[in-house]
Structure formats: C-alpha cells, structure tokens
Amino acid sequence: MGNFTVEPDEVDLPRGATAGARRKWVRWQGKAVTALSQNSHRAYLFPVLTPEGVALTAEAPIDHPHHSSLTIGTDHFDVAYIYGESREERGTYNFYVNDTFQGRAAGRTLETSLHWEELASDHLSIDQQVEWQGPAEWGAPNRRTLAIETRTIDIHASERSNEITVTSRLEPTNWKISIGPPRHAYFTVRIADGLRVVDGGKLIDSEGAIGGNSVSKGNAVWVNASGIGPHNKRAGLTVIPRAKDGIPHWYAHDWGSIALNPFLNKKQVVGVGDSLELSVTYIAYDGDAPSPPVIKS
To answer: How far apart are CA 125 and CA 41, in angstroms?
Structure first.
C-alpha cells in the first residue's frame, strides 16, 4: 500500500489571505491522476490526466466558463417547499451555469467532507460529501441546503490508463425535489483544446457514429474523444455510463463538450427519504484507444 496520495495545493499567500478556490491532488506512484477541485460555484475534477501527464479536459473555457472539466449538475432543479400544514410552493433553481438561467437562480455544489482509502496498489476509493445549496435569497440569506450528494470516486491507475468511476447519489434534505426535463447535464465533460473535433480531434461512439451531431442522436454504450494533446502527444478519453435504467441520452458538440443526460425527456422526482443514483466511468489513456474499451468492475 502507499501508492496513492491525496494532498492539497500549497499556495504561499500573505498572512490572513485565503485562496478563492482550491484543489486536492490525487497521485499514483508520484504521478498526478486528477485533482478534487472546488470553486465558488461547484465541486469538480480537474485536471484529468493520462499516465504520461497529458491533460484531457478544460477547466473554464471562455465560451462556457461553467464547463468545469468533469462536473455534475442540472439546469432545471425544482424544490417543493411546504408552508403551513399543506401549502406547497415551488422553488426553481439551476445547478449548471454560474448565473440565472431561464429565470432559474444559480445554486452551488460545495464539498463538506472527504475521506479516502487505498483498497489495492492500483485502486483508490474516495467518498466526497457535497451539499447542493440554493442561492442566497430573501428568507435564506445563508442559502438552503436542498440536497446532499454522496460522490464516490473510484480510481484505478496503471501505466496504460487512468480509470475514474464517479457514482453520484443525491438525497433531498427537507423537501421533495425534481430534476428536468433539462437540456443540460447530468454529467458534463469539457474536452481540452487539441482533442476537440474543431481542432482536428475525433469524436466517435460505440456504434460508429462520428461527430457531435451523430453521437447526440444515438444510444451508444460509450463515446470516445481523442486527438493530439499538449507536447504533440496523442491521447484520449472514453466516457461510459453505468445507468441502471438504460443508457442515458448523449449531448455532444464538436467544439468540445460531452454530456450524459438521463432526464432529457422526462422529469425525475425524488422524495424525502429516497435517493437518485447515477454512475459513469472515464478512461484517460495515452496513444490509441483500447478497442473496445474495457472497464474494471
């Protein structure tokens, strides 16, 4: 054991100053795999690196600053507030963009606890608790915690690839919640420059569809983005959903985004005491893609 480390960034600041954002780096045998990152809007993974250190994702692209590498969220998040004995009023929020979206005020996802355990020499399991907090608003100047997410991140590292499986279990706090039908999310990936189709990269799915428009119309079991990354190194990222209720909808663009959206055509209601669980695997590799992609159980 002792192959993995999880350590915070060391930022030399003047006394009394604090960083506005932070990272906790995950390393295997001294090589960075990814980092647990937190900014004022969301908890996310950035960067996502291959074994040779090629960065495959972008953190805050100028066209979509909310595309934070590998992130989780939704643009339609409703809360059924109960006032008095039976009166129900709806709160409408978004946990996708950084600003109000279609009249929906922006919430934030905030890490509140973190634990990890090295289960094998190549396997690290991380449990991250994330609060889905509504905006500061009248009646809730300190924000309401609307849901608690348990984010389990399983990392398998090797010389050939870094495999990251993210399982998101979302539980309402005091009120029933509903998600969708949203156009964006639930899992969003922003591909790094160089690997995007518009930069000469390739986007392909398990059915042979090529390009964002074709991938978005399909029901593939995986989608792969590849190209020439930094230092002229070929690398890629494979995205594989692990949905219990079928394959979610893909929503991809040649300019660099891939999303897995199980709620595109239906609303998902989650009552107090219930939970919503979704999972996806990301495989970061050097060279040519494994064919077909194989993930560890």
So the answer is: 24
